[in-house]
Amino acid sequence: MTVLSGTIVGGPYPERDETREGKLDRVFATVRYFGGSVRIGNKRLQSIVAATGEQAKGLDMLSEQELRGRAAALRPRLRREGFSSIALAAEAFALVREAATRTVGLRHFDVQLVGAWAMLGGMLAEMETGEGKTLTATLTAATAALAGCAVHIITVNDYLAERDSDWMRPIYETLGLSVGCVRQGLDPDARRAAYSRDVTYCSNKEIAFDYLRDRMILGGRPRAIAMKIDALSGAGTERRLLLRGLQFAIVDEADSVLVDEARTPLILSAEAKHGQEELLHRQALDLAKQLDVADYTVANGVIELTRDGEKKLEDLALMFSGVWRGPHRREKLVLQALTALHIFCRDKHYLVREGKVVIIDEHTGRLMPDRSWEQGLHQLIEIKEECEVTGRRDTLARISYQRFFRRYVHLSGMTGTASEVAAELWAVYRLRVAKIATHKPMRRARHPDQVYGRSEMKWEAVIASIQAHRMAGRPVLVGTRSVAASEQLAALLDAAKLPYRLLNARQDRYEAEIVAQAGAPGCITVATNMAGRGTDIKLAPGVAESGGLHVIATELNDSGRIDRQLFGRCARQGDPGSCEAILAIEEDLVKSFFPLADARFRHLRRLPASLGKTVFRIAQWRAEHAHSRARRELLDLDDYLGDVLAFSGRGE
Which residues contact 400 (CB under 8 A, 6 or more apart)? Predict the structure, then answer.
């Protein structure tokens, strides 16, 4: 039995019972947040600094064996009393800081102690980009692990999980703690072994799907009595489970995981028989191609048929029989086909690799080879791209990120961009945001945005800016939103005879090498969102004196938080740096969420700075509002499906 911040966690598969809340509950929670009842200042959190300093006295004189002995002696006290006591937490922090100094040559700053103490208290620490969140997490994780908790450090992709686990492993092992890493492609035995470690690094998608696999074995929510009976009868359920429950989570880049990616449900599926579905999908695409632009509307990425379009489709479908005679099924199939044709684009939403359609994660720019779209969309895109058509997949289990993370007994996180969604994080997850000060003053210069009417003029300005900063001896990082845009810029750089390195989903295996060289004098790196969150670009000697890294955003994302992450690649830890946005009105963000501005201003060569900034601010506000509504609707649907399946006795 383990004590977690005053909550007793027992049983073979501990997790928190969800508190069911309706829409009004979330509204009231948001109002209470803005009323100030959950705002956290640094004053109360700062007390950990002096306490840790007191506990650290004499630790530098201990041998490695004596240091590990001190950690072992602390374990039973943490197990009995938990880590809400500042004295015990400070002793653990002092041990971790000493171990980090000896092994990886890094000593935690005071602001990192404050951030770790906030997370140990179940908060989300908002730390500016470059403030060392990876190292900060070791304080919280090691303390919780010494208390007997199964700790999961969850980040946005396998690359960061593997990098951070390898980098921080010596710290944990010095204290007698074991470290595991779960990544895509591991077999069940390797996953089970990784989750059995004291601290496990993994991506959000891997752990969520592993949890669904456990739920399939358990037949629903874990039941302690049933699992004990299984153990006595030799059924071996516990030995087949991957996780040890949902005890303690530290979510890195928490706003991305808990907010941006929470619009899509996680669905565990199995391939079903083809039947007549491939024929239906081919017929749907044929019909969709016969519809004109006037037969449907596109708004916020959603396609709807017009009245004339419905009538035209009815006439076209007369050549077919069966499901095509029913208006609801007919329209649903063709709307999916129109979505495959006009909304999902090659080299933006997916790649075609070795004859297969591979999804690109829009938030991270990385490939997701084991994922597929539902409701026939994936098969429609395969037919569109003339690839081999995979079978339809039947849903075995599903859950949303909101419901999954709320089941952790102790949920905490860290990110550089949480203030904008602090109210939603509190309303959905009961996570309070603690804004942590920077270790050194910020030296990032933000240049005025340049907004053009057409893309051609934007790219000319981008090339000119790259040339100017490269001639000054500064490295340049250029961010794009899609593989296609990154390759278009690469072609322009080739024409200008400018050397560069390209990082997108096609070059994912060379990511570490490209990032390692991105801080060299005059180096030009063109990247998708892969070079955003978690990427630490080290400046080469002499680069800081030249002004540091310069970052150019060539498109804005649906959320300003993601743009801030890109700009956060420069001016880290007190280094100098600068950033700018060079944009065009005829971009997807404006087209989708502010079409009036697209029609009105795309003919202009260049917009006044204030007007261009206003256009994109409105488009981003509309996009964020639409995505927030989608997250609320998904959570309501997930709660409803959970109730229906529980009533039927099937579980989730």
Answer: 262, 265, 266, 634, 635, 638
- What is the signed CA dihedral for 387, 389, 395, 399, rounded to 10 degrees? 0
The strand order across the sheet containing 248-252 reads 179-181, 199-203, 151-155, 248-252, 410-415, 123-126, 432-435
* d(C-alpha 1, C-alpha 487), whole Å: 55
Dig out the tokens for 171 from the structure.
Answer: 């710290």
**Tokens linked to 316:** 């076209």
What tens digit of pLDDT does each residue of 189-243 get?
A: 999 999 999 999 999 999 999 999 998 888 765 555 455 545 444 455 567 899 9
pLDDT digits (tens, 9 = 90+) for 419-462: 889 999 999 999 999 999 888 888 999 999 999 999 999 999 99
Owner of token pair 């063109």: 526
State the alpha helices, DSSP H only, in 358-482: 377-384, 401-406, 422-429, 455-471
280 within 8 A of 333, measured Cβ to Cβ: yes
Report field, pTM of the whole predicted structure over 0.70: yes
Q: Please, where are the H alpha helices in 434-559? A: 455-471, 483-495, 511-517
Torsion of CA 542, 545, 546, 547, to 10 degrees: 130
Q: Which of 101, 96, 98, 115 is nearest to 49 (CA)?
A: 115
